[in-house]
Amino acid sequence: MRYFEHAEPVITLTAGPVNAYPDVLRGLGRTVLYDYDPAFQLFYERVVDKSQKAMRLSNKPVILHGEPVLGLEAAAASLITPGDVVLNLASGVYGKGFGYWAKRYSPHLLEIEVPYNEAIDPQAVAAMLKAHPEITIVSVCHHDTPSGTINPIDVIGALVSAHGAYLIVDAVSSFGGMKTHPEDCKADIYVTGPNKCLGAPPGLTMMGVSERAWAKMKANPLAPRASMLSIVDWEHAWSKDKPFPFTPSVAEMNGLDVALDLYLNEGAEAVWARHALTAKAMRAGVAAMGLSIWAASDNIASPTTTAVRTPEGIDEKAVRQAARARYGVVFSSGRAETLGKLTRIGHMGPTAQPIYAVAALTALGGAMNSLGQKLAVGKGIDAALAVIDAENHQFTN
To answer: How buried is residue 397: exposed, middle or buried, by Cβ count under 10 Å (0-12/13-18/19+)?
Structure first.
């Protein structure tokens, strides 16, 4: 094998963490300022302002200093009370997982669960809300990466809002890679982070919080305070005139600052378009070489991760090992129920470039061929290039 197991890979095309933009990596090397230095306090406020602009929020977002699983658990701990009735929408491993946190804080848990290659049907949500008017909180994962599927959170959010319930959205691997914002889906708590589509390292949570969610959390005596899980403690930390509850992650804030500049300067629509084109080329190549995506239809397939179904008789782990050893390309496995059934190829941040779809198809097809599958890799590459060239044609004519 050309690439040894402990050597660094040539290309990382995982569902996250993703490789950071070079400019972000340089930003991480900026001076680490003292958190009470006036220069850092002003800098922190400006980064929050940029986050607010990127997230298209009417109020200030919260930045928690831990990767987004911190924000998701904090949302459950802070918003859910023992008297709440929670409806959890599970279309994949991560959506299902939020229900375990919800159950910790309220014994009243309802769930709509669909096969993990499908999306939540808004009509099923509407029916559940009608049958259970006591529902007060709804939780949903927008993009469940272990399935590579997208849920229609804007439609779901409108239903939840009309019902009067609070909505918690996991947008960790969707924000920045497609059109989604907290207020678009009427989210009360919207959790994302810079370590996926914004192309920065893991280490921070970005969170949109509605005014009524602030009121509910502050009225909840069980909401964490003086804790890493506290959201309430960080309500005013964005202001240069307010203290931090504890030392913020200075280097990660430096990186986030650069990542937001890159996103805003390129333009959100342009960023979303290259994510979508990369995934479209990938899906076309997958089909042409004789494979299939995991998602039940292209309509719910994510523009930020393509999950490729593992053919019968092929060891999925061996596929990833061969792709790394032969070509230096790293993919992600499935998780829990999807482990061994699919391979995930990430299109996030710096790897949301169409040429990476060609590289991914080459490595994936070559790896499977080495295991005896005999795919038409050339046809897959031709199909991906045809999608890319058709898009380029629009800009040259």
So the answer is: exposed
